[in-house]
Amino acid sequence: MEYREIGKTGLKVSRLSYGASSLGSVFHETDDRVAIKAVHTAVERGMNFIDVSPYYGHYKAETVLGKALKDLDRSDYYLSTKVGRYGKDGVNTWDYSAKRAKDSVYESMERLGIDYIDIINVHDVEFADLSQVVEETLPTLVELRDKGVVGHVGVTDLQLENLKWVIEHAAPGSVESVLSFCHYALNDDKLVDFLDFFEENGVGVINASPLSMGLLSQRGVPAWHPAPKPLVEACRKAVQHCAAKGYPIEKLAMQYSVANPRIATTLFSSANPDNVARNIDFISEPVDMQLVEEVREIIGDQKRVSWANS
């Protein structure tokens, strides 16, 4: 496993990391015992960065992950969680106030059974008043960083422009990392356009969802996926092309997403230990760039005409 530093944090993390959203049964129902084994498999195979959120499964993911962490040495992993986005009884909620952010950090630590969070993120700022994030949420998290409760502060969002705005308007050094999803995959590499900016500001980059939330998978997209039909169809043809060559598109997508050395790590989520092991095996082989180009040609004009840019 190759390890890269997240910006200037000093955290050297595996280039493929574990996203714990699946532990919250956000994609389908999961068996907690199997899910816990998936976490253990990830760490045992060298993945030393785990990302979660109280929003995933409306606190379930953090709770299940906490059970898994009881059997792991705290020095074997870095942990990232979030504030701002929550839910209860199937209803999503958002609160980016200073008080809620501070309370959320301590609540997460209790669910996770830890006394220190390596990276705390403001979650999905597209749902927030960005001025509140800059003037209230981030200063609260920086205060906790200064007290040693958390190690580093980051921001996550689907819209890269929002991440850029927050960094430009926040106090220098407030934002140490960004987490971007669905913008560095075979069908969309918009993240590349922002790498210079992030690097110039000393901000580390975390990528997520190399399968573009199912677009780049043999299973296909879930019913709720917001991608327009032309993009779904283009990706389906790419899936078939890879299958005809005996090269699962999931393998190509994983290899492509972790190959860029300017991206510290790529997160993927699975509550299945066999899937975790298979994806780690996938990235042990070099990416087939010829097949990458063939896939991108098939996706063609749909490459950036996607739900993720709307």
Descriptive notes:
This protein has 310 residues and is an alpha/beta fold. It has one domain: Alpha-Beta Barrel (TIM Barrel), CATH 3.20.20. The chain has helices at 32-44, 60-69, 98-112, 130-146, 160-169, 195-200, 229-244, 249-258, 273-282, 289-299; strands at residues 3-5, 12-14, 16-19, 49-51, 78-83, 85-88, 91-94, 117-122, 150-157, 177-181, 204-208, 265-269. Strands 3-4-5-8-9-10-11-12 form an eight-stranded parallel β-barrel, surrounded by four helices. Strand 6 and strand 7 form a beta hairpin. Helix 3 (98-112) crosses helix 4. The radius of gyration is 18 Å and the shape is globular. The model has no long low-confidence stretch (mean pLDDT 94). Residues 15-298 form the NADP-dependent oxidoreductase domain. This is Aldo/keto reductase.
Outline of the structure:
It contains ten helices and twelve strands. The protein is α/β, with parallel strands linked by helices. This is Aldo/keto reductase.
Which CATH class?
Alpha Beta
Shape: globular
**Main sheet: strand order:** 3-4-5-8-9-10-11-12
Strand runs, count: 12
Domain NADP-dependent oxidoreductase: 15-298
Pfam families: Aldo_ket_red (PF00248)
GO molecular function: L-galactose dehydrogenase activity
Protein name: Aldo/keto reductase
